Amino acid sequence: MADLKQLMDNEVMMAFATYATIILGKMMLMSTVTALKRLNNKVFANPEDCAAFAKGENAKKFLRTDDNVERVRRAHLNDIENIIPFLGIGLLYSLSGPDLSTALMHFRLFVGARIYHTIAYLTPLPQPNRGLSYFIGYGVTWSMAYRLIKSKLYL
Questions:
Q1: Domains in the chain and their CATH numbers?
Q2: What's the mean pLDDT in 122-142?
């Protein structure tokens, strides 16, 4: 059984920890961007959130959806759907002892693709920008899963 010191000495694990931290920070930032968009556009999802701007029936006009807020929210949901599998599979992949350069390629491609996906979603850039960045990140996660199953897991 590996102890914490061994994991800290493992370059692949430390690379994974670095890129996982970057991508989780980006995902956390998306919830902040969503909240700021809601405040700036005075668009809220819950009646109690409208109370700061108006009371009673007047508050209902702030209880609505907005295309700009929804775009940020959808980008954040897409992050959640893709980053969580990357974290789980990436952790197992990192623990399987892959080559450092191959692992770094996987981690960097995934993080770069997710950052570009967010830029393409929020700007918005014309398709296929967002679609290609999604499939690159998705493919990276599948590549790690395939390598893990092929080389280390017992079926």
A1: 4-39+65-151 (1.20.120.550)
A2: 97
